[in-house]
Amino acid sequence: MRATTSVAYAGSDEFITAGTPEHAQTISPSKVAAICGVSRFESPYSLWCRMKGWTEPIPPNDIFAVGHAFEPALAALWKIENPGWKLSKGEVQYVTDKLGFPAVATLDRRAVRGSKRRIVEFKTARDLSLWGDPDLDGDCPADYALQVIAQQVITGLAEPAHLMVMGPFFKWRTYTVSYDIEVASWMLEKCRAFYASLQADEPPPLDSHVATYASVREQHPDIEEGLSAEIPAELARAWREQSRVVEDANTTLRGVKVRVLSNVRNAQYVTCDGQTVGSRRPHRSGSVMLVLR
Fold it and tell me: Which is the most buried residue in 10, 27, 184, 281, by most CB within 10 A?
């Protein structure tokens, strides 16, 4: 593993590509949110299983491809907003083993102005309502903010970073994420403990994250006919009770939806006090579905 000061550029032989076995064994900023338990998409347990090879890597998807394709456009917009700064032509990667675990940070762009160096990240979003006020420092989704702080830790670039997001109808926002030493220290402690657990074959505890559920299901796809497995009485009782809670909640929700649909009739949008709270959308069955905003 290279030292902290080692830098590689996209297309070079030293660049570690995401999805390769070498990259899979490192802790990257995109994994930090999961390790710290704040990711919307992955849990500590599901990430641990992927890094151990217990489950398959996540394959590239259309969202990733779209985000990558939008990077040049966002870079051009960022340069218009930040005259006097220069951007790297492509991704810039830092690799280090000086943090207590092997780490790699790949920046979408690195900005330079005189002696200053700044991280610039680009995202795409289907719904900007899930993002906060760009005028408030770090007021973007917590997992993305933590990802940027992890990049600052790995690269040593502590200048406030920029996170630019492109939303629907080509509307974009730019968020500033400042380095936070307390968050960085907490994050490093979590990452070191997580990496130590990988070496000790001690997975994180199970939780209710949807990614944990998917990970456990993926590990045991086969069904051995006739085999029984005993579970504790407390677990069986919890399974029954929570199933009843879900069934009751679904029944109640269905009743509420019936009343809403009866009220709105043929309208597309559902409003309350002048504010849109939901909509009716076509369903592939030929009927309609009611969606809460």
Answer: 27
